[in-house]
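We store chain and fold; example below:
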Amino acid sequence: MRLDFTAQTGPDHQTPEPVSIAGQPTTSPEDVLEIYSAIEACSSGMLEAARQDDWTAVAQLKSRCDRLIESVRAAGSTEHWPREWRNARLRTLARVLHNEGQLRRLAFPQARRIDALLAGSV
């Protein structure tokens, strides 16, 4: 089953509609985890582009990632998911956060110097 990750815009042209499969909103854990995996792949691509100093690509991937995140939000709560699905979601989110941290270090190298200064003054 192939997901359509091109979030459509709603009538106000600002609010993305949920990602869909054959026109139906995604709500199953499998579908939503697939979106989380796409977010992870997008964040990995952003990190790789940043390592290559391609900030235009980073911005383009961030826009795609933002649309995917809106799709996850539109899918609703994960509280009712079985534990194994929630754990898979958390593992994916941890990898996304790791990528984001690495990306921030590349985008803001002066932060590393500030961290070093603060660590030396304590």
